[in-house]
Amino acid sequence: MTDKSHDPDNFDWLDSIINEETDKRVKNEGPQKKDQTSDDSDNHWFDSIIDAAVEKRTKENERILHKLKEKENQNK
Hints:
This protein has helices at 12-28, 41-74. It is mostly helical. The radius of gyration is 18 Å and the shape is elongated. The termini are far apart. It has one domain (9-73). Residues 1-44 are annotated as: Disordered.
């Protein structure tokens, strides 16, 4: 089977959506704040996944930044 778009075990499309939304939130606002006035339970699972990905990427970015600062201080 050469066309992966019809492969039921291929979740590249989901990875793509998660990465795109994570990139957008990391750049703009960080994890979404839960709005208590709306109950959008259909998207709750998706927001939870994206929030976790944003948190993970933010921590990774902070770790990399810390290492770069350490390296910069060593080079002085």
